[in-house]
Amino acid sequence: MDELFSAAAARLVAHPMLGHQGKIPGTLELIPHENYRLVYEIEHETVWILVLVHTARQWPPVRE
Fold this sequence. Notes:
Layout: H1 2-14, E1 20-21, E2 28-33, E3 36-43, E4 46-54
Antiparallel strand pairs: 1-2, 2-3, 3-4
């Protein structure tokens, strides 16, 4: 799985707009595996990976 996630992150270097619009405004999401969501944002020419979340988890998290 680690190699799968690393490969997905590496693809974002060449194609930062590869993902779709995220559930949180200003973010993008890439699905490297059917059970995982990679959430990231682009700031200038930098891709920031914010979180890798299992799809069974509540996303975005609920704040109490």
